[in-house]
Inverse folding.
């Protein structure tokens, strides 16, 4: 340790009050179990086997003290032959108990893990059908927690063997019966201790449970605080708040420590108390046996040994039952959160198409929006009465300032969101009449931030194909004039692509996205151009690629480059959710309206730079 | 305490021997004495056991507490160079997982080693005095038992890690899938994603079953190892009993001692591996404890007062590249000066180095010595607290803590709840044009922001961060692009506020907005880390260059903003 920890003052409590665990309502265990059952049913046989084995283990455990007794009896009666037999029996019994427990536990774990994998898969499918609006307002982390941590909490039902409670009960009853049969009066001494043990166990367990809950809350708070400190380190340093934050952290840190200390105390008391009671029981039995021996009753040494063993085994299930109840509770609250998600969130609905389309789609129409209005947030329309018709094979550029509604138009065409008012058609068919998947397969999308998967160049171009058609990949890359660029990499088409394509430049990622679009060969192209500046060599390649991809396709381009707006058939200008102008570049520029201003804002600088470059190139002696 | 506890157990064994011999020997009536003493000792053992665990585990928790406090203390002193090298996730994993391992070493590890020592002494005394031969026979399996638990504990650790990794992988798959939900849907990639998920789900299933197998095997393995010992004991012990070499009481006492040694022996194996792991974790923690802070106090005493005159001379700065060999120069030979109470604007595109300069002024990055002067004194010579107190820096990405709005704004105040503080907070919020909106929140200024509270817009966060900087009233106010997410109307109001601020202090404004720069006394234009031009707004707009083209671009944007969409007739677009 190189430095002294900062001075500790009482925390002022700035941040620490706000990380409390979510409180949950009363869980209705029976209902939750009924809902979990469909996931457990396929594992029904394993569960049944496990249950049978649990009872088996409990039974074997009951026999053990009897065998011990037999050993000592045979020793007393001088029967070495029996001694050996019983000795071996005991050893086999112990190993047998352990092995069956293992088989039982493993069967249970398999059943549990498989059920939970199914539950996770169900959650995953559910999330794939959740409306995008839900994602707009829910942090992704929360959804991930449902499918990981919460499912794991439910899995504890199997992993920590809550169902073994059955075995505990069997064992408890069995031991009582056995003890009564061995010596009824001696048993009463042991049973006399039972209320005391039960009292201690319930008392301590309840306290311990509170302590554990406290620890969980404090741990979450501790980690959240530390995480925030690391994330906001520059703010803490800039405002010289190190001391104050350390003092606050000290409050959380010491609360965490104290909560743990409480649980240490209760754990220690519980274990030690049970041991103490069992010793006291044994002592009382010896004492009582002594008194009885005075009267020459039939208490033998082997009996005392067997009895002592029963007493040792007696208190174990009592204390286990309490533990299992705690696990059950946390599993149920996990299940509750999961089912709450499944109940509350909206899934993409199939909207019935309008009975009769009011207007018949024109012969040659590729895309159409008619008086479309849409808003992400109620009352704040992003698109207002937008109408746009695009013919097959036509190339249209959408331009406008940030937030003018360009990207929303493409999102609606892909039916990522449902339009609020108006009519939209794709390839002559009403949007709502399309199956979402089929609809999206009609589109090749080149997004602004190209999304590359970890894999190879080929698998990224082929994307949705299980095994990429290498020839087709090659053709696509050649068509956009980038084959040489990618073949130059070691590994060629099989070159590794890191997570999110981190080992490729922005330009290369764009080119891959174009190749992807060609490989997919869908009739409609949606292209959101990247705003990032790209070196002039790649720029030229992208220009060629763009033309190759657009050829023979209907294209909607959210344009950010001058070369693109010059290459399209028509420019549609968006301003605050409306289409305000439309036409070709020169016409619009001459109008001196919104487009002319946009041009000054977005493209003029680029034009200037290109001009300057050309000038310097021609000026330079070759 | 442990010694006392084990001694009590030892005595219980001896007493029970006497009791049994009494009961089954000639004098059953004498049993009351030993039985009574066993009772007393049982209570003593209880106290001893609770107390020993309490003391040792608490010591572990105390150590954990100290280490964690120290950890944060060290983290507070480390700068960007460290945070570039070690990710937040890595720091968190060390401060949770590794710290736990060290705690286990100090608590459980120590308890076991000490306990096993006493347990050995106490049990062995009973056993050896009863029968040396029986002791030897029953002891044959002890080393085996230890070996089993040690190896078991080791592979348990690796399996647990593998399990954690599989879970991490599964979370990653989910995280990317859900974060990229638009891409997945636009490309109709559901099948592919399903496959990826299934693979990860299956891998996690396998990993958790692997862990379960191992965990489950522990029982049978330890059981088998120990039952060999029990078997040996019973068989040989019974023979001795038969021969009359030992009494029944001795047999009972021996058995009892033997059983109570079994667990400490087995757990010694666990303890050994916990000690190993704890040491490995401690070395990982040392990476943080021993990291050298790059920004430290200067030798000069704190000056009695600071006026806020800033001079920058030939300032160059480069970030270490991904591999050490390629440093990436972001600031290249920059010089400028601001008299106390005046304002300066640093203007440039993204990546022009303007934000880096701002951070260097407050020594939030390792400022090279002899480049930045406050009141003519090198900032590297001054105490860090003096620099940070007087050079207030409000950063670009407004990081807010998940606490109330009021406490975020009053971050630099020691107590946010006094009347004076509340007044200052309100005043600052009003200056930063965020008071009205803050009062509109569900619990007004006491609304919690962030993950568990109300989500604020980028502009709101930025203005709260600005208010936070204003509350501080430093001599030099460095504002790093405080308006990037704010609309034009609010911008004008905030600029008025900044202008008022500038009357009382030196202001360094980092911006790409001409409207903001225009209000400063002096403007420095940066491109690629170098100063390409400087002067007043009036001078700069008249000569062609970066600044003039910025002005042109932004006036177009303003005009565009001003177009009322309802004035322009929406057109039906038909090809």
């Amino acid at each position: 340790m190189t430095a002294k920890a900062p001075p500790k003052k009482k925390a002022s409590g700035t941040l620490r009050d706000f990380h409390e665990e979510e409180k949950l309502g009363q869980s209705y265990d029976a209902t939750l179990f009924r809902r979990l059952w469909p996931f457990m049913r396929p594992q029904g046989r394993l569960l049944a086997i496990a249950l049978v084995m649990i009872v088996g283990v409990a039974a074997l455990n009951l026999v053990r003290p009897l065998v011990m007794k037999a050993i000592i009896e045979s020793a007393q009666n001088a029967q070495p032959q029996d001694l050996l037999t019983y000795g071996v029996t005991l050893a086999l019994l112990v190993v047998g108990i352990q092995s069956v427990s293992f088989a039982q536990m493993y069967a249970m774990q398999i059943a549990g893990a498989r059920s939970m994998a199914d539950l996770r898969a169900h959650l995953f499918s559910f999330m794939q059908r959740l409306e995008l609006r839900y994602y707009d307002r829910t942090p992704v982390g929360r959804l991930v927690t449902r499918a990981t941590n919460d499912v794991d909490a439910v899995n504890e039902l199997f992993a920590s063997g809550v169902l073994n409670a059955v075995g505990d009960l069997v064992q408890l009853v069995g031991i009582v019966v056995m003890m009564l049969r061995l010596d009824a009066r001696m048993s009463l001494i042991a049973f006399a201790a039972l209320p005391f043990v039960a009292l201690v166990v319930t008392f301590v367990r309840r306290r311990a449970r509170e302590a554990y809950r406290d620890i969980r809350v404090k741990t979450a708070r501790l980690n959240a605080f530390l995480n925030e400190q690391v994330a906001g380190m520059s703010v803490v340093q800039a405002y010289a708040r190190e001391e104050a934050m350390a003092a606050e952290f000290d409050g959380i840190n010491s609360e965490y420590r104290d909560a743990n200390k409480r649980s240490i105390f209760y754990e220690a008391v519980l274990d030690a108390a049970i041991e103490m009671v069992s010793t006291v029981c044994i002592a009382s039995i010896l004492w009582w046996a002594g008194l009885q021996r005075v009267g020459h009753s039939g208490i033998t040494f082997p009996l005392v040994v067997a009895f002592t063993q029963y007493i040792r085994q007696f208190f174990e299930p009592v204390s286990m039952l309490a533990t299992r109840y705690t696990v059950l509770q946390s599993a149920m609250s996990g299940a509750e959160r999961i089912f709450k998600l499944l109940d509350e969130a909206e899934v993409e609905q199939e909207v019935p198409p309008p009975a009769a389309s009011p207007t018949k789609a024109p012969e040659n129409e590729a895309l159409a929006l008619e008086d479309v209005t849409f808003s992400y947030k109620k009352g704040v329309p992003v698109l207002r009465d937008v109408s746009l018709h695009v013919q097959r094979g036509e190339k249209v550029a959408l331009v406008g300032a940030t937030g003018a509604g360009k990207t929303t138009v493409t999102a609606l065409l892909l039916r990522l969101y449902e339009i609020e008012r108006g009519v939209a058609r794709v390839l002559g068919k009403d949007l709502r009449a399309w199956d979402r998947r089929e609809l999206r397969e009609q589109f090749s999308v080149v997004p602004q931030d190209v999304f590359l998967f970890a894999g190879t160049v080929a698998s990224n171009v082929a994307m949705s194909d299980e095994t990429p058609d290498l020839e087709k990949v090659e053709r696509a890359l050649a068509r956009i004039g980038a084959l040489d660029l990618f073949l130059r990499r070691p590994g060629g088409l099989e070159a590794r692509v890191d997570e999110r394509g981190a080992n490729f430049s922005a330009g290369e990622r764009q080119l891959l996205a174009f190749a992807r679009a060609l490989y997919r060969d869908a009739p409609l192209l949606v292209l959101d151009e990247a705003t990032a500046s790209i070196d002039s060599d790649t720029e030229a390649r992208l220009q060629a690629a763009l033309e190759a991809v657009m050829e023979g396709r209907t294209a909607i381009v959210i344009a950010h480059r001058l070369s693109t707006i010059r290459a399209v058939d028509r420019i549609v200008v968006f301003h605050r959710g409306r289409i305000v102008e439309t036409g070709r570049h020169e016409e619009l520029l001459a109008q001196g309206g919104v487009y002319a201003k946009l041009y000054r804002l977005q493209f003029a600088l680029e034009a200037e730079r290109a001009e300057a470059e050309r000038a310097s190139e021609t000026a330079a002696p070759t | 305490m442990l010694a006392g506890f084990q001694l009590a157990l030892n005595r219980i064994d001896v007493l029970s021997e006497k009791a049994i011999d009494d009961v089954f020997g000639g004098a059953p009536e004498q049993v009351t004495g030993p039985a009574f003493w066993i009772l007393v000792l049982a209570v003593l053992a209880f106290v001893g056991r609770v107390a020993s665990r309490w003391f040792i585990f608490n010591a572990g928790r105390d150590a954990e507490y100290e280490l964690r406090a120290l950890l944060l203390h060290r983290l507070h002193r480390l700068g960007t160079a460290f945070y570039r090298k070690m990710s937040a996730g890595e720091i968190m994993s060390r401060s949770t997982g590794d710290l736990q391992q060290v705690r286990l070493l100090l608590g459980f590890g120590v308890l076991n080693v000490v306990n096993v020592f006493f347990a050995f002494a106490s049990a062995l005394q009973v056993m050896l005095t009863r029968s040396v031969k029986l002791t030897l026979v029953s002891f044959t399996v002890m080393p085996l038992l230890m070996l089993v638990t040690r190896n078991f504990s080791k592979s348990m650790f690796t399996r647990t890690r593998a399990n954690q990794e599989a879970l991490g992988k599964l979370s990653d798959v989910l995280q990317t899938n859900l974060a990229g939900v638009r891409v997945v849907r636009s490309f109709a990639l559901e099948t592919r994603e399903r496959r990826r998920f299934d693979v990860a789900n299956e891998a996690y299933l396998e990993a958790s079953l692997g862990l379960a197998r191992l965990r489950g095997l522990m029982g049978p393995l330890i059981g088998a190892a120990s039952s060999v010992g029990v078997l040996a004991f019973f068989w040989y012990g019974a023979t001795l009993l038969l021969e009359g070499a030992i009494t029944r009481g001795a047999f009972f006492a021996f058995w009892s001692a033997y059983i109570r040694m079994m667990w400490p022996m087995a757990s010694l194996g666990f303890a050994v591996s916990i000690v190993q792991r704890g040491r490995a974790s401690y070395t990982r923690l040392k990476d943080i404890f021993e990291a050298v802070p790059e920004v430290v106090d200067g030798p000069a005493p704190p000056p009695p007062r600071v006026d806020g005159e800033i001079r920058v001379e030939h300032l160059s700065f480069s970030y270490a590249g991904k591999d050490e060999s390629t440093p990436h120069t972001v600031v290249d030979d920059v010089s400028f000066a601001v008299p106390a109470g005046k304002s300066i604007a640093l203007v440039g595109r993204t990546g022009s180095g303007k934000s880096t300069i701002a951070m260097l002024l407050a020594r939030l990055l390792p400022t090279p010595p002899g480049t930045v002067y406050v009141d003519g004194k090198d900032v590297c010579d001054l105490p860090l607290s003096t620099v940070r107190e007087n050079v207030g820096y409000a950063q670009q990405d407004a990081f807010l803590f998940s606490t109330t709005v009021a406490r975020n704004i009053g971050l630099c105040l020691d107590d946010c709840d006094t009347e004076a503080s509340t007044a200052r907070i309100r005043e600052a919020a009003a200056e930063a044009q965020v008071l009205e909106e803050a009062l509109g929140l569900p619990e007004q200024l006491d609304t919690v922001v962030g993950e568990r509270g109300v989500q604020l817009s980028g502009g709101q966060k930025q203005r709260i961060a600005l208010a936070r900087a204003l509350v501080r009233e430093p001599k030099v106010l460095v504002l790093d692009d405080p308006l990037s997410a704010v609309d034009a109307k609010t911008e004008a109001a905030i600029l008025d506020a900044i202008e008022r601020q500038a009357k009382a202090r030196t202001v360094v404004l980092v911006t790409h907005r001409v409207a903001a720069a225009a209000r400063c006394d002096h403007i420095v234009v940066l491109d690629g880390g170098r100063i390409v031009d400087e002067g007043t707004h009036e001078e700069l707009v008249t000569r062609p260059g970066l600044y003039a083209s910025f002005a042109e671009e932004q006036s177009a944007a303003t005009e565009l903003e001003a177009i009322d969409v309802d004035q322009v007739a929406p057109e039906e677009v038909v090809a």
Q: What stands out?
A: DSSP finds 20 helices and twelve strands in chain A. Chain A touches chain B through 162 residues (CB under 8 Å). Residues 423 and 525 of chain A are 20 Å apart (CA to CA). The mean pLDDT of chain A is 78.
